[in-house]
Amino acid sequence: MTADDWLAALSAELRRRRIDPAGPVGEAAAHLRDGGQDPLEAFGPPAAYALAVVAGLRDATPRPRGPSGEPRLRATGITKRYGRRTVLNGVDLSVHAGEVVAMIGANGSGKSTMLRICAGLLSPDSGHVRLGGTVGYCPQNGGTSDFLTPDEHFVLVGAGRGVGRTEARARGRSMAAALDWADAPRAGQSRHLSGGTRQKLNLILGRLGDPDVLLLDEPYQGFDNGTYLDFWQQVWHWRDAGKAIVVVTHLLNELDRVDTVLDLTPGRAR
Amino acid sequence: MKKTLVVAEMALREISRRRGVLILLALLPLAFYYSRRGEAYWQSVRFVSLGIGWTLSTAALFAGSAARGIEPRLRIAGYATHQLYLGRLAALWTVGLTLALPYYLLILVDLDGKVRNDAIALILVLTVAVAPPLGLAVAALLPRELEGMLVLLTIVAMQMMLDPEKTAAQALPFWFTREIGTYAVESGAGADHVGRGLAHAGATLVVFLAVVALATTLRLRRRSHISMA
Amino acid sequence: MDRRTQWLRGVLDLCVLGALARGESYGYEIAQRLEAGGLGVIAGGTLYPALLRLERLGLVVADWRTGASGPARKYYRLSDDGAATLRSAGADWAVFVGNVNAIMEVP
Question: Using N-to-C axis directions, what is the helix angle for A165-178 and A225-240, rounded to 10°?
């Protein structure tokens, strides 16, 4: 790998993690010039070095973030049984504006069920959900129409939210670009998209129309590593914009940056 | 109204991309027509309208089944349930009329003078009216397309095999095609056939529309455990 | 070699402070000082993250300087905290090494 290629890749990786690349790339460039070494020998792969830089820069103490005002989503005492099996037993969940809640738990612990109940797609056996604003939902898969193009999806969902055609297309396309999907406007019918790309569409449709509460059920299925990082960057971005977000996730790397973790594994403290 | 139109537009786009369905829609009724063309021509009229009814209701079945995946999301996005199924019906009715027109012209030219043209037009219009609600009703009640297709196949087969004189035959959705058809092809037939046919078609339409409305509204209902702050 | 890498991992940041005690410097030159001191080649991938950590902890202070020839370089120097840390950690290290030597001595 040439030094220029390596430095360009490093720059991209740092940018993806919202780190200004100028300093680290400048220093690395100077080091390579002085020493004349192969960049992979001196620094390792660009992605790994970027991680090391981030680790060096990251503030170790988490920001204390108190809940602000009334929760946008308050679920109380949610219980759901399927036959004899109790999937959810009196679960409570509160999410405020500008807060990210990660919902974790083993397979079958009811994460998707809980999210669907909060979205209003499923009725619990008991319990109540109070919503303070519009809701957007992104299921693990599905939620798209095989024979429509992404643009057509944007218009369709946008119209429901009262967003005009051109505006809906523009918003959908810009969200696609933020998820590293620049040629969404030129894409054909969604049945021809790869699984990961289709999930990007799914995520965008959940967010279209700027709902106040976002319920995301492992929406990153099939995302490559870069897009996965882009997705979380978007989540922090939406949090800063005051959205209340619930993300169901198996993957634990981002947990130190979310505000609250709700563990649905039976027996764990809530 | 605007939202319903957007649903209709997208449903039309979807159907137009399903090449297989479109070819079937276009050509299957033709096969039905010519299957009886040699013998009594009046059978051709009945069979072609059954062909149109069957393929259009099958197209509606596919459209309804395919929409299940996205409908919950559309509800969350702010559509009312009636906008969803009315939009889809509007698209299917449009497709049906576009399909029926060439067949009307075919019958006009092919059976010129032998049939009452206005009655033929009425049969085709009523068939196009009834078929999509039938297909969507089957889709709403049966989640899987295969079972739905078998139901429609059974209906069409029974429609062809059951003696129309039997009272039981009136339970079948396209019975009115035979009734009005009698008026269309028999010079001696009275206009009361038309009246009975219209009544049957009207009742069938209302029943299937009600099934679609009820089943869809139930499936996509606003749940009682949610309240807005 | 692996053992050596592990030892180095534990004291690299102190060694960097030590190298800077001899005067301010920039990345590549710090690496050369460490190599000249017998620590072997320090990869850039290891050195710069360590410098970033030291900077974040306030033990070194950095500033960019435009050179007479070539592009800007980031220069590092010990802060007062850094100098103090070097002295006290250095003392702890000496005690530690002494104990390790004593245990490892073959009787």
Answer: 120
% chain B with pLDDT above 70: 100
- C-alpha span between A108 and A118 (Å, rounded): 17
**Residue A90 phi/psi, 5° resolution?**
65, 45
Helix (H) or strand (E) holding B28, with range, is helix B19-35
ipTM: 0.90
* pLDDT > 90? residue B13: yes
Tokens of A122: 């499923």
* Residue-wise pLDDT tens digits, A85-144: 899 999 999 999 888 999 988 887 889 999 999 999 999 999 999 998 899 999 988 889
Pick the closest to residue A195 from A137, A140, A268, A239 (CA basis).
A140
Nearest C-alpha neighbor of A93 from the set A111, A109, A69: A111
Record the pTM.
Answer: 0.72
> What DSSP designation does A41 have?
H
B141 Cα to chain A: minimum distance (Å) = 18
Note the helical H segments in B111-189: 117-141, 145-161, 175-185
Q: How far, rounded to the nearest angstrom, does the alpha carbon of residue B80 sit from its chain's CA centroid? A: 23
List, in sequence order, every beta strand (DSSP E) within A96-230. Answer: 99-104, 126-131, 135-138, 213-217
- Map out the domains of chain C with their CATH numbers: 3-104 (1.10.10.10)
Give Rg (Cα) of chain B: 18
Q: Rounded to a whole number, what is the distance in Å from the CA of B32 to chain A's nearest CA?
A: 29
Give contacts of C 8-67 with A, CB under 8 A: 26-29, 31, 43-45, 48-53, 56
